[in-house]
Design brief:
The complex is a heterodimer.
Chain A: H1 5-43, H2 45-56, E1 57-62, E2 69-70, E3 76-89, H3 90-93, H4 96-106, H5 111-123, E4 129-133, H6 138-146, E5 154-163, H7 171-174, E6 176-179, H8 182-187, E7 201-205, H9 206-210, H10 212-216, E8 220-226, E9 232-239, E10 247-249, H11 253-263, E11 268-274, E12 280-286, H12 291-296, H13 300-308, H14 317-320, H15 330-339, E13 349-351, E14 354-357, E15 360-363, E16 371-373, H16 375-380, H17 384-394, H18 396-405, H19 427-434, H20 440-447, H21 457-469, E17 471-473, E18 478-481, E19 484-485, E20 490-493, H22 498-513, E21 532-538, H23 545-550, E22 565-572, E23 579-585, H24 591-608, H25 622-635
Parallel strand pairs in A: 2-10
Antiparallel strand pairs in A: 1-8, 2-3, 3-4, 3-5, 6-7, 8-9, 10-18, 11-12, 11-23, 13-16, 14-15, 17-20, 18-19, 21-22, 22-23
Helix pairs in contact in A: 11-24, 15-17, 15-18, 17-20
Chain B: H1 23-43, H2 52-71, H3 74-79, H4 81-98, E1 100-102, E2 105-110, E3 115-116, H5 118-136, H6 145-163, H7 168-185, H8 189-208, H9 219-229, H10 240-252, H11 263-266, H12 278-310, H13 315-339, H14 357-375
Antiparallel strand pairs in B: 1-2, 2-3
The chains are: A alpha+beta, B mainly alpha.
Chain lengths: 647, 379
């Protein structure tokens, strides 16, 4: 097809027009691109710069090391010990299945751990370490290290974990820590970011949880540059956190260990308090458990064994357990009457073995009665009728008020879990709670620490310390925080008549040291160390009229949970009281038989700061005590380092 | 017009041809490629390997090839237009039958020493074929329906073959380049109006087909469109590319973070940082000044090509040059729109900058043709 020159020019002209058009459109588009560049890179630069920084910079928390806890003599009660775990990194391991297989032949691994590891390996990025096993024994760690060439990508890692070197002795006081759970997070209104660290340990029970803010410390942080896959490329800067505060408890670990061993497997509790400062020197609840089990994550079997035990090892009986104080309450009734001026110097009451109050017969524990008794005799022999009579004269309001002044029915400020308030009942209280009016029979019951009256061993110890000193001693559990001594609270005079107090102390002295006193069998011979106290036996059942006629069933013949609680409170030495002790043996039978000997042993142990000489005991007991001391020495843990060398 | 009518006497001969090359275009191309080497060196973390060095070798080879092609008279190349087109279509069919599947698409034939992507070659041979066609076709028949249908078929065959691979980006580029050439050749406005109208209708139909059993495009293509329309719906999924590349671009600011200082690139937040998204690295490290300069270089190449075409009295030559320029324009326009969030992510590389052998070789080959047309133009 031959074209003419004209034709060519024509078409060329057309091309030129269209080319100019299309070229113009192209340049226009390029202009549009330039405008877009300007918009993104100049107008919105700041915003995008920020986004880029957010992309690349990651803030990682550095967990603070938890404060340690010591006893009053500096013995370590809670510490952070290295705990070993084994991790695997996929990109270093190559064939992870083969490596895990080899590893399981070198150290014992649970099949479910292997399964979980395999699943996690599939999910997580190849450079992230996946934990195969935690709390690995040192021997296994060495085995892994020795076999390192055959186990590519497998490395032992060390972290810090809470360990309680005193084991079960401090289970109820200190409590324990455990990994943060979703449940914990829900309870906290605005959880600190550090709590989101997987398996971060926080206090769950006891001092560990009550003083969590002090113990936890402040998390540090490091800013790291990460790539798109989340791998850390380098650390940009770091701010170290502050470790948690170290605490010193007022507890004496040696005494606590003794008390715990002395209570042994009995369902019992004991509190030893310094009469001057209110320092709790021992606060033991038995049976107990090993808090280290909870730190690692307790097995279902072990947990069932604890919850299924009828002696309730998990309960912190010293502060949580509430018992009718029984005859140990008689001092309060008597003090209420003395302070009200209702007992003359020579006043006596006749005890025929019972008292008729508005048509109801209230019995004395001694059926035959005590005959004519005065204040000292009534306390010494624990006559009930004397106190029925006093209580009716004094009235419940004064008794209840006196109980509160002595720290009963008052929640003491002690950083332990489930501190109970107890109950010192009043007329209003009964009206509000039961919508019933107070009856004089209720007063009669309260007068001997039965009925509505409830107190914890801690409260009984406080009561005893206040009786011994006449000052409003407050219990203290934390001696110092980071070496700074904590103030002693309370301790001011209660404003009671010193004569009345002296009468009570003399009566309590008679309970222990008079030949006819209920606790004479548990006296201390050594003059300097003599103690004064009061037995208590509190009923947990009603004795029917029919049973009374047929003869009250002896405790030994009753099933355990229906037997009486045995109680004993005491202070020593009598002249210059140093320690107040309260012991409660649940369903232990009589206070003089079950609780008083324990209290005496504990008191002597505290007074002598170690095993007392045998001549502090009455001569006929010495042989038995010596054997007992021998046995307990073997039972007390020698501060073994629990947590690592269990193999 | 037969080759005899070329003013042979006025055309330079022998090595003197070198002096008559369109040197501005050649130098601009080398500058753009140089920027590319710099960026490839940077994304490799300051290393010539694995990208910058092979790219430089390929560029050297391609540049020599371009000069070689430029030395051969344009009328020789024109005579190959028809054969070239047929061979390339045959290669596309071959890819369909024996091609290697890479990244979910059949795109190349492994020749042993290099991977041949016929779809890249197609961009050139299609333009050559259409230019030759309209050179041959008398001007007054240009808008005749029959003579319009022929080039439409010639465009649709490779477009559909490429779409089957599937490579949406290249097929759009082919369609646009072919259509553009027909427009340049003077096909009547009415046709384009009708095509644009029906294209709108087609898009509507495609969207209608979503989720039905006659769905016309693949789910991932729908998703790309979705995330293009609203990248924030899926910032870690398919919207990730767009979001991250906008962050990289924007964080560059006026002057950028400095050479090799781009955090988005170094920390791998950018996907395909050495290929399709390499512009974001440049924008992040050299800022607005850097990216506008690159755009300026591209614009200058287009301007010089159009000027060369307008001053070329040969119909085939000017259509060919305009077609090549249009192709080049479509390349960088689509790529930049994509990384700046103006177009969906379709997988078009940045010409002369992105790492990739066959794309660069084919482009330099095309510019060889352009240079040949320039050297051997009527004077």
């Amino acid at each position: 097809m031959k074209k003419t020159r004209a034709e060519n020019d024509l078409s060329h002209g057309q091309i030129s027009r269209r080319a100019a058009l299309l070229g113009g459109a192209q340049l226009l588009f390029i202009g549009g691109l330039a405008a877009r560049m300007r918009f993104l890179q100049v107008d919105q630069a700041d915003q995008f710069r920020l986004l880029a920084e957010e992309n690349r910079i990651n803030v990682r928390l550095i967990p603070p090391s938890r404060g340690e806890v010591f006893d009053r003599n500096g013995r370590r009660l809670a510490q952070n010990a290295p705990s070993y775990r084994i991790v695997i990194v996929r990109e270093d391991a190559g064939d992870t299945d083969a490596v895990l297989d080899r590893l399981s032949r070198i150290i014992p691994l649970a099949p479910e751990d292997i399964q979980r590891t395999k699943e996690e390996l599939k999910r997580s990025p190849s450079f992230l370490p996946v934990t195969i096993a935690e709390d690995v024994r040192w021997q296994d760690i060495s085995r892994v290290s020795v076999n390192a060439p055959a186990l590519p990508g497998v490395t032992p890692e060390v972290g810090l974990s809470r360990v309680y070197p005193q084991g079960s002795d401090f289970a109820h006081v200190l409590g324990y820590v455990g990994p943060v759970s979703d449940y914990d997070l829900e309870k906290i209104a605005d959880p600190e970011p550090v709590l989101r660290i997987p398996r971060f340990q926080i206090g769950k029970v006891g001092v560990e949880t009550k003083l969590e803010p002090l113990l936890r410390g402040k998390a540090g942080a490091k800013r790291v540059e990460v790539n798109a896959a989340g791998r850390v490329m380098r650390e940009l800067d770091r701010r170290e956190g502050t470790a948690g505060s170290d605490l010193q408890l007022t507890i004496d670990a040696k005494l606590q260990g003794y008390v715990q061993a002395r209570l042994s497997e009995e369902s019992a509790s004991a509190v030893v308090m310094d009469c001057d400062t209110g320092d709790l020197l021992a606060c033991a609840s038995a049976p107990t458990f090993d808090p280290n089990l909870f730190v690692r994550g307790i097995s279902v079997k072990d947990y069932r064994a604890l919850t299924g035990n009828k002696y309730r090892p998990l309960a912190s009986k010293t502060v949580q357990g509430l018992y009718p104080p029984g005859s140990t309450f008689k001092m309060i009734t008597a003090m209420a009457a003395l302070e009200a001026g209702l007992i003359g110097p020579d006043d006596t009451v006749y005890c025929p073995g019972h008292l008729e109050v508005s048509g109801r017969r209230f019995h004395c524990w001694k059926r035959a009665g005590h005959g004519w008794v005065d204040l000292q005799t009534s306390l010494k022999r624990s006559c009930d009728v004397y106190y029925y009579d006093l209580a009716i004269k004094v009235g419940i309001e004064k008794i209840s008020a006196m109980a509160r002044r002595f720290g009963l029915g008052v929640k003491h400020d002690v950083p332990m879990s489930a501190v109970a308030q107890g109950l010192a009942p009043t007329m209003d209280w009964k009206q509000q709670t039961y919508n019933q009016s107070w009856r004089v029979g209720d007063t009669v019951n309260v007068s001997i620490g039965q009925g509505f009256m409830l107190a914890s061993p801690l409260q009984l110890a406080v009561m005893t310390a206040r009786l011994a000193t006449g000052r409003a001693v407050e219990p203290r559990l934390i001696k110092s925080v980071d070496g700074i001594e904590q103030p002693v609270r309370g301790g001011e005079s209660m404003g009671m008549n010193e004569n009345n107090l002296r009468k009570m102390r003399r009566a309590m002295n008679a309970v222990v040291n008079d030949r006819r006193g209920t606790a004479y069998g548990s006296r201390i011979i050594e003059d300097e160390m003599r103690m004064a106290g009061k037995t208590g036996t509190s009923q947990v059942r009603n004795i029917t009229a029919a049973e009374r006629r047929a003869g009250v069933i002896r405790n030994e013949d009753l099933p355990w949970e229906r037997r009486d609680h045995a109680l004993f409170v005491n202070f020593a030495p009598i002249e210059r009281p140093k320690y107040a002790v309260a012991v409660v043996v649940e369903h232990g039978g009589g206070g003089s038989k079950a609780a008083a000997p324990i209290a005496r042993d504990i008191t002597l142990q505290a007074l002598y700061d170690g095993p007392p000489p045998l001549d502090a005991y009455p001569a006929k007991d010495r042989e038995r005590i010596e054997a007992e001391q021998e046995r307990l020495r073997d039972m007390q843990p020698q501060a073994s380092f629990v947590g690592q060398d269990q193999a | 017009m037969s080759y005899l009518e070329y003013a042979v006497k006025s055309a330079p001969t022998g090595f003197r041809k070198i002096l008559y090359l369109n040197w501005p275009v050649a130098i601009l191309l080398a500058s753009v490629a140089g920027a590319g080497f710099l960026m490839l060196y940077s994304v490799a973390g300051g290393d010539f390997n694995p990208w910058a060095e092979p790219q430089m070798k390929r560029f050297a080879l391609g540049f020599v090839l371009m000069l070689g092609v430029a030395m051969v008279p344009i009328w020789f190349w024109r005579s190959l237009a028809g054969v070239g087109y047929l061979v390339t279509v045959a290669l596309l069919v071959a890819v369909e039958l024996f091609g290697t599947v890479g990244m979910g698409a059949q795109r190349w034939i492994d020749l042993g020493f290099m991977r041949l992507q016929p779809s890249e070659l197609m961009k050139i041979t299609l333009v050559m074929f259409l230019a030759a066609y309209y050179d041959w076709l008398p001007a007054k028949r240009t808008s005749h329906p029959f003579w319009v249908l022929l080039p439409v078929i010639a465009i649709m065959i490779p477009t559909l073959l490429v779409l089957r691979q599937p490579d949406l980006g290249t097929s759009i580029l082919l369609l646009a380049a072919g259509g553009g050439l027909m427009f340049l050749a003077g096909v009547h406005w009415a046709y384009f109006t009708v095509v644009v109208a029906s294209a709108v209708g087609l898009v509507a139909t495609v969207f209608q087909s979503r989720g039905t059993d006659w769905q016309l495009i693949k789910d991932y293509q729908f998703r790309r469109i979705d995330t293009f329309l609203d990248p924030s719906t899926d910032p870690l999924g398919s919207g990730y590319h767009i979001t991250q590349s906008k962050i990289a671009l924007g964080s560059g600011g006026w002057t950028g973070r400095g050479f090799m200082q781009g955090t988005q690139t170094r920390l791998n937040f950018l996907p395909e940082k050495h290929t399709d998204f390499i512009f974001t690295t440049l924008a992040e490290e050299f800022g607005f000044l850097g990216s506008i300069s690159l755009l300026g270089l591209y614009a200058l190449i287009i301007v010089f090509c159009i000027w060369s075409a307008l001053t070329n009295k040969d119909r085939f030559s000017s259509l060919l040059i305009l077609g090549i320029a249009l192709n080049f324009f479509l390349f960088f326009a689509v790529n930049m729109s994509m990384v700046m969030g103006l177009a969906p992510v379709v997988g078009v590389p940045l010409p002369m900058v992105s790492y990739g052998g066959s794309a660069m070789l084919v482009l330099l080959l095309a510019f060889g043709l352009m240079q040949s047309a320039h050297v051997h133009r009527l004077r």
